[in-house]
Amino acid sequence: MTISLDESRPSPWVRRFAGLIPEPGEVLDLACGSGRHARFLASLGYHVEAVDRNPLVLRSLQGLRRVSARQVDLEAGVWPYGGRSFAGIVVTNYLFRARLAELLACLADPGILIYETFMVGNERYGRPANPEFLLRSQEMLGWVQRPGWRVLAFEEGQVEVPRAAVVQRLCAARGSIGARL
């Protein structure tokens, strides 16, 4: 299946499911990069915690209404969100399996997980090519095979825009979710 990925604007996958995130609730934009999703979610009225290890990218988020920018190396030290709960968690173009259980534990009930990143096959097109950072086929589905969770949508396949890549996408709900009008 060919699906699209545009790294300069909010992901169509995130745009498609963002309205399902319960209100009022805080959203975690994990490894936020340039902050494209933090800005988008804030424009919808959500309060967003945008976290990344790169202080340069976080500068552009400083002072934005409804956005708290936080510099943290998510792969070192103590998990920074222990005890926190988020109505929504958005992750794109990032995978660090060692923190996955802690990340999923941060999703509130009810809550929405929107996740999109690279999978095996992407090594044909460049980075990331290390298997440590590439999902196996249908791997995301296994993350949410637990009581109280349900898959709302799942895709995996090759994209051509903005560059050829192989990705996997998941939107999952924890608890009972109603659409935001």
Descriptive account of the structure:
This protein has 181 residues and is of the alpha/beta class. The chain has one domain: Rossmann fold. Helices cover 17% and strands 32% of the residues.
Explain briefly what this protein structure is.
The protein is an alpha/beta fold and 181 residues long. The chain has five helices and eight strands. It is globular and about 40 Å long.
What distinguishing features does this structure have?
single chain, Rossmann fold, disordered N terminus, alpha/beta, eight-stranded mixed beta sheet, 181 residues, 5 helices
- Poorly predicted residue ranges: 1-6
Structural Rg: 15 Å
What gross morphology would you assign?
Answer: globular
Helicity, in percent?
A: 10-25%
Topology diagram in text:
Layout: E1 2-3, H1 12-17, E2 26-30, H2 36-43, E3 47-52, H3 55-59, E4 67-71, E5 86-92, H4 100-105, E6 107-118, H5 139-143, E7 149-159, E8 165-174
